[in-house]
Amino acid sequence: MPGGSARWLLLAAVLVLVLPLEGTTVSETGSTPAPPRDPDHHGGHHGGNATKKAFPVLELDYDHIHTPFEISLWVLLASLMKLGFHLIPRLSSIVPESCLLITVGLLVGGLIKLAGEDVPPVLNSQLFFLCLLPPIILDAGYFLPIRPFMENLGTILMFAVVGTLWNSFFVGGLLYGVCQLQPTNSSILNDIELLPCLLFGSIVSAVDPVAVLAVFEEIHINELLHILVFGESLLNDAVTVVLYHLFDEYASVGTVTMTDAVLGVLCFLVVAVGGVLVGAVYGILAAFTSRFTSHTRVIEPLFVFVYSYMAYLSAEMFHLSGIMALIACGAVMRPYVEANISHKSHTTIKYFLKMWSSVSETLIFIFLGVATVDGKHAWNWTFVTVTVILCLIGRVIGVVGLTFIINKFRIVKLTTKDQFIIAYGGLRGAIAFSLGFLLDKVRYAEIREMFLTAIITVVFFTVFVQGMTIKPLVELLAVKKKQEAKRSINEEIHTQFLDHLLTGIEDICGHYGHHHWKDKLNRFNKKYVKKCLIAGERSKEPQLIAFYHKMEMKQAIELVESGGGVKLPPSVPSTVSMQNIQPKKPPPAERALPQLPKGREDEIRKILRGNLQKTRQRLRSYNRHTLVADPFEDGLNDLLLKKHKMIELEKKVKMSNYLTVPAAPPDSPTIARARLASDPQAYNMKQIDSVPTIQVDLASPQSPDSLNLLDELQRANQRGQSQRREQEEDEEEEEEVQGLMMRPPHRGGDKTEDGAPMGKEQRLMRCLSDPGPSAEEDEDEPFLS
Amino acid sequence: MGASRSRTENPEIQDLSDQTGFSSEQIRILHRRFRQLSGDEETISKENLEKIQALDKNPIRNQIIEAFFDKRNQKDGKVGSFEEIGFEQFVKVMSHFRPPNLKMTDEDKEAMRREKLRFLFNMHDTDNDGTITLDEYRKVVEELLSKSGAIGPDVAKAISDAAMLEVASINMPHMEPDDFYEGITFEHFEQILKGLEMESRMNIRFLDVDTSTMHCGKSQ
Fold first, then answer.
1. Which helix (H) or strand (E) holds B43?
2. pLDDT tens-place string over residues A137-163
3. How far is A507 from chain B (nearest CA, A)?
4. What per-residue string of b and e applies to A689-711 under the rule 16 or more CB within 10 Å gives b?
5. Residue A740 above 50 pLDDT?
6. Greatest CA separation for chain B
7. Can you list the domains of chain B with their CATH numbers?
8. Is residue B155 within 8 angstroms of chain A, CB to CB?
9. Is the CB of B154 inside 8 Å of chain A's CB atoms?
């Protein structure tokens, strides 16, 4: 297939071009430094002693830029690799990306070494912990599904804390035992003390969030298992940090007393709780800041990123758990920030986080490969194999044992299948490697290399073997997969309903359970916290309504993106419209509308269908200024109206049969009027003799971005006149769009005429369900009209 | 407190336990609570439940209380509502909130899910015609939003209309413009709430009833 060979060529080209470049840049840095420059070389010669050289027209000054250049080159390599893998169709479904990336890293490292150069110390811990890890963790924390996380918090904590402790001691202790059993003179194993072994155990037993994310993203298991393993990998950071420092401190001394152990426990509490508090404080600061950003929308995403990063750094400063701080920060700020920021900022944040975390992850795995090639390795068969086996066994025993205890407290018990996946999903990754790297070179002179080799082996084993086989195993065991279904409004209504119901039943039972406290927290949140942190009217908006708005927005955007009338969005594959749902009224004596002769109907249908297919959209190019002062933010009403008409049109326009110029079924005058008022095509029903000149406005190019969240709307001062003006401006702009334009007949009166006393919220709702200004409307209208 | 723990005879407890799936310990605890709520009477009426202070803040309070007195939830085929209920009926209603246990087969879980969904359905279908009409649904949404401050009637209407539209679209995708979607039947209701996994969510813990949190029925 021609496409296939093109892909191979591209991949080959990428490899050929980039790798030698890597080699040369490395060699450049390794080579002798550039000849010393005369400080005023560029400014010409002043001293009389210097010999005159020809004025350099073009010169190569690599030193000047070499660090950023190398960094960019690595990032480029990582991204091109990622690109390449997805071009090869079958490979990405068999082998998880992480494995492929490590392999690439190995290749690159190998190539560099072959070129005779020193491999750059890429996985140095500073770089890793300060630059590569935070984006991944922030991405995870910001998009953490709070509900399942909180519901399973007890289980997750058990696995994270007790499980990691168990693993460390099991692996460390048994390893020490094995080492002691070795004959004294044959290997250095015998010399290893207990504490270094325990230190090693603590490094190697922590489940790694990066690896877990990388592998679990591709297997799409159900939410419960995903959150359990992933939550565990995040929360075990505190335990790892404490154990690491504890054992590291005392490894040279040789003993750990009871006091030290108690202090260790205390330290753990401080580290964990402290980390969360630091994160929460920064999160609240970020939420509060976002309250005031309505005039400077462009920098909104920046606040999210900077506050989070500062939370991480602050926590690291005190040796608290940076990961937990980052998670807490993201999770705390999200609901408030999202209520305050514009839709564009939300998209920006989402995509930037995904981009950074993706690049970070790719880089981490590549560096893992490179560092493997680089490091001095001390391969010791016994040590390595025993480590790997102990890790596996320890994990399994830990999970099974803990589940047995946990199941006594859970409502929904964990089955054997679940336990297997949890145990099998305990992957180790780059964090373990970096922690190993951090080991002091002097104190652990001989054994450091051995430790590093063992760690790398465990990491490789888990990532390659477990990572590759988990997908087929999941299929084999028929583990429940993630449900792809979109959140529907019915589910949202019933989730809320269920919450209240369960709280009520608990109250009737007289028992202050889970739901009772959750309810109390929610009420506290609504009453005090939201008022502080969310700007304007949104603070009072109940969750259901917020959800409903979001859903509306999504549907509208989907509609626009799917190209208007040509393709129906998959979420509405049905012919149901509001007409079907309205209760019937008894038929009146006479019909409200004259019936269209059949021939006319067909003509009209043909015209509409033909014109719809010609619709095209043109995107406007953006500049920073349009983003900032978008005139259409105020004209949102009109766009929403048009969007609604579009939706209505969508629902009614079908491939064949009946179109939306139907003969109205016999109806009472009220219903008929309501439908007329809402039915765009019906506006022109009066001029039946001529073919109605219906123009369909299918997608104003500004719609997606002008559909700023409704908070824009609410904050903008709704002046009736400005709306009118905007509408006219609007229509002029839209003439650029080819295709049909539909205009509702301009009727007199203002949009907001019916309801001067209505608050802003009411007006908003009115706008959504209001098809257009109409003096005659005095009854409720069907919603999606 | 701890007053007349008139021990219902053991065979009765056993009987109830078999019927509802609670353990005898749980039934005893529930009995204690029942006596509290009823003020040591044999039956409780709506007023007894309305006196519970904690329920005041609950937006769907009335529906919950109604559900206890709804004959349909007794699973014996009758309709209508009681004036007062005895302990047996109380426990039967509570049994809808039992969690599934590990030994349940998939069919058992299905049956349990259906039972819980039926309970929810009955709560919505107030006129007991087997369908949830648009008006009934609208009322549900209004009640949900009732404690959230001043919301206009249009909002609830809009949301319930959208929800109804969704149900209709999913269950009966091809309707002629003249067709009329009567209301959500139980099958449709099941269909739209398939994703929520009721058997795992609609549960409360029964064994952790802490005596210190119980107040005398009268003082609440």
1. strand B43-45
2. 999 888 888 888 988 898 999 999 999
3. 6
4. eeebebebbbbbbbbbbbbbbbb
5. no
6. 65
7. 2-132+184-213 (1.10.238.10)
8. yes
9. yes
